[in-house]
Amino acid sequence: MRKTDKKIPTHEYCEDGSDAVNSCPGWRKFVDLGFRLARLIYSPPSRIPRDTWRNFSILLRWLRERARFSGDRDSHLVINLGSGRGGEGFSILARDKDVQCLCMDLKIDGGADVVADIHQVPIADSVASLVVLQAVLEHVPDPERVLSEAYRILMDGGVIYVEIPFMQGYHADPEDYRRLTGPGLKMALEKSGFEVVTHGPTGGPGAGLMAVVRAFLLGFFRKGILRHIATPVVRWATLPLLMVDMAYGHRKNQVVAPGFYAMGVKSHNSLHDSLTGNLQP
Question: Which domain of life is it from (predicted)?
């Protein structure tokens, strides 16, 4: 994930007025590129992220339309909670010159712009147009509190985008608490006050099956050198299962989907009513 080159004026949005943005020296970008290449070799793709990339393209189009209608610079403010520098597809927003992306995470070395607990977001009320939570809710002790904080920092008519795994093995970061179906994710957002505009799977049955097979095979290896050797071998060996999704598409079967996404809108206003249709796939 490439970090945006723009300097985010964090002090304009943080409640304490501090500037918590981390600097990123030029040499660090080359080191980061090396780590990403090594990670690709060690961990090949686990799904075909066409839905995620499509969703972020839709969100970018929506942000542009919102800014055009409102004429407000804050209409481009995107806050990413708990995903370091962002997950798959987030670079579509981060690379856009008109979008201000602010990434927040609890990890000091996670590459986020602001280090903070997302159960208590140090951001003023009603400042963001879009809040992103990718593969985060399964790791937090109190997801209702996190969604409540997302609702608080969103402007009226703002959008929340959430992804959560379903057919995926236990992965503590630092802990792993839950899985949700598509309807379960929709219900969680609605309980927090959002109107869910659209929701669906983040991949096909091939990706879901591959996740289960990988977890099963790697379960024979305990932590140690053998585990590290077996991991890339198993991951590359099971990669052909993604051909199922390429051949048949994923919407025919959501029973073993690798995960689900949902887009929700905060409250109603005239701007919301005129733009909500742009969020439909």
Answer: Bacteria
- The span from the CA of 153 to the CA of 230, in Å, is 44
Q: What is the model's pLDDT at position 6? A: 40
172: Cα separation from own chain's centroid? 17
Q: Which two tokens stand for residue 99?
A: 């979008």
**Residue 155 to residue 195: CA distance in whole angstroms:** 14
pLDDT of 8: 40
What band does 110 get if pLDDT is binned at 50, 70 and 90? confident
Residue 137, pLDDT > 70, answer yes
Report which of 160, 215, 230, 240 is spatially closest to residue 193, judged by C-alpha positions: 160
Q: Give the Cα separation of 150 and 157 in Å (integer).
A: 13
pLDDT at 1 over 50: no
| E strand spans, 97-210 | 100-105, 114-115, 128-134, 154-165, 194-201
Q: For position 19, what pLDDT does the model report?
A: 40
Helix (H) or strand (E) holding 12: none
20 in Cβ contact with 14 (< 8 Å): yes
**C-alpha separations of 67 from 1, 61, 64, 156, 247 in Å:** 25, 10, 5, 14, 39
Distance CA(117)–CA(8), nearest Å, equals 19
Q: Can the peptide bond before residue 44 be classed as cis, meaning omega within 30 degrees of 0?
A: no
10-205+258-279: CATH homologous superfamily?
Vaccinia Virus protein VP39 (3.40.50.150)
Picking from 237, 247, 147, the residue whose alpha carbon sits closest to that of residue 205 is 247
Looking at residue 224, its pLDDT comes to 84
pTM above 0.90, yes or no: no
Q: Is residue 267 left, alpha or beta, with left meaning phi > 0 and alpha meaning psi from -120 to 50?
A: left
Residue with tokens 């009513």: 273
The CA-based diameter of the chain, rounded to the nearest angstrom, is 59
